[in-house]
Amino acid sequence: MNLPLNIDYSGKVVVITGAGGVLCGTMVRAFAQAGAKVAALDLNEEAVKKLADECKAEGYICEGYKANVLEDEALKAVHEQILNDLGPCDILINGAGGNNPRATTDNEYHHEAAEGQKTFFDLDTSGVDFVFKLNFQGTLIPTQIFAKDMAERKAGCILNISSMNAYIPLTKIPAYSGAKAAISNFTQWLATHFAGTGIRCNAIAPGFLISNQNRTLLFQEDGTPTPRAHKILSGTPMGRFVDGEELLGGVFFLCDEKAASAITGVVLPIDAGFAAYSGV
């Protein structure tokens, strides 16, 4: 992987949740390549163990841990393991999150709903609750546990993952959009709360990326874009999707204690211009 910036994270302990996914897995590899000691956390233990083994085979320092970001006691036990294996956390990346079909409508506009489609009135409240818990509490709980390391040493960085949905909600996914808006707000709250401790807290807001979760929403079986993908691209000035590795420049910058020493409480869009375009 060609790293976007010449940044040395040697000696830093970086904890990344949601590391079993493609995007956060890329961040794990990048920080390991930049010299950090990386703890990769995910509910999918097999995925993070495999990721850690691959990083170690390349000569980097990385350990994989099974972790549920919604179970504080279990996460505290993982924290103790990381302290023993790698040391106290210097950088926390709250990457765990996602949507759920139970909290998603089938139609963009209610007046266009066809018989049998799941409408706003059919949304499963337990699904909505799950999406909010996964995204918001899944950021709050790891921060409670790992930021203690930083507060004790009066230094550290927290990076949350917001979304372009936080600025303008997308159709069909009201719970996910609302939850990501909460992440942006929480990022500002944390930045203020920890301002006197030496801890900085920022977030990135990725634009539209292609992942295993949304591939079928964006492309037909023959590889051509779906109508939803056409809408996205027509509203994106650069006319393309964002590649996962294009997040790394912003991530490295915001996590660097020298380059971003006075930057806290910001949400950085990495969106190929989507937020800048009015549609006209």
TrEMBL record:
Lineage per the UniProt record: Bacteria, Bacillati, Bacillota, Clostridia, Eubacteriales
Source organism per UniProt: Eubacterium plexicaudatum ASF492
Entries under Pfam families matching the protein: adh_short (PF00106)
One of the record's GO molecular function terms: oxidoreductase activity, acting on the CH-OH group of donors, NAD or NADP as acceptor
InterPro entries in UniProt: NAD(P)-bd_dom_sf, Sc_DH/Rdtase_CS, SDR_fam
Record protein name field: D-mannonate oxidoreductase
Family note: Belongs to the short-chain dehydrogenases/reductases (SDR) family.
Record keyword Oxidoreductase present: yes
NCBIfam families, alphabetized: PRK08277.1
